[in-house]
Sequence to fold (370 residues):
Amino acid sequence: MDLMIGRVRFGRQLRRLRLDGGWTVRALARPGMSPGHLAHLENGTRNPTEATVRYLAGRLGVTMEELLMETAPSLLHAFGVVATSGYLPVRDRIAYLRSALDADTDAEGALRGQALWLLTDLLVESDEHEADDIAAAALRELEGLADRLGEVELSVRSRARLAGLLRAKADPVSMAEARRLAAAALEIAGRFPVPPVVEAEVLMAVLSTGAESDPMSVGAVHLARLEELAEQLPPQLCAQALWTVAMVHMFQGSNTAAVQVLEQALASLHSRDNLPLWVRLRLAAGRLHLGLEPADTNVVQAFLDEAAPAVTLLEDPKRMAELRQLQASRAVRDGDLETARVLVADLGEDAGLLEPRDLARLREEVLAAL
Fold:
């Protein structure tokens, strides 16, 4: 048996066959292999032995030759597998769909558009820091594809979602492009009838990009309309819409209104609906209450304590960095400088995952308290 197959190619084939069969890493690996070893094989960081190939082929119900011969899935096949495999880890579904998109560049336009949108959905759901650049590239392609196909709704949604991703980067160039994209999405949506979900996504993009650059210029009509639409939206989008409204109130200095609307957002979403978003809302609530004068640090700590177990469960370095930053800020407010110093030191290289303004604010708070 010739095992001179590239580790990366073998890993791709192994992952494809595993996902086609509906296997999780843990289920396929055991009892004869550790899940960690199987993950290394799929990532192309370990060479497969003949015994390994024989074992995995038997578990997958294929021949050793089939396991060793890389065959790229069609985009239609991959789309079907990923769209109906919600029980599989998001990372697996992302990797599988990306490989199919990379391999099947000649796929029919509408199918490729659906696959790109599904990929960005999964990337947003994963809530991983490195996913943003991948999602932005997919959305740029989708924007052009939707325009060529004359798909108005997809054209509007791709611009609105890309605007949100770029806004999060917070640098001047990205912010300028985010505002341009949001304005373009609003203009297109104003010329064609769009469903409430799409209208809400556009308004969130317009309000969030405008609030940070010139909060007082944000239109009260858009703000009121988004709050009105929230009642018609599914839980996840409802929470995001209300969070956006709260953020605008906060930037405008209306902290009481911001707290009230954010409380509605918190109540609208259960952790089982979307755990990453549920966590982000609680971190946002902690940050908002820290900014009040005077700040009630007991309320802040309650939000952070609620979020902490979920942050650990998600194993997301960015959310963990945000949690530590907020814990350190709370400690400074309580006069516990030693705890604040320890928490800042624990951030280490992960400090780079924080929004620049949040990191600068934390450093200012620590220095001012010394």
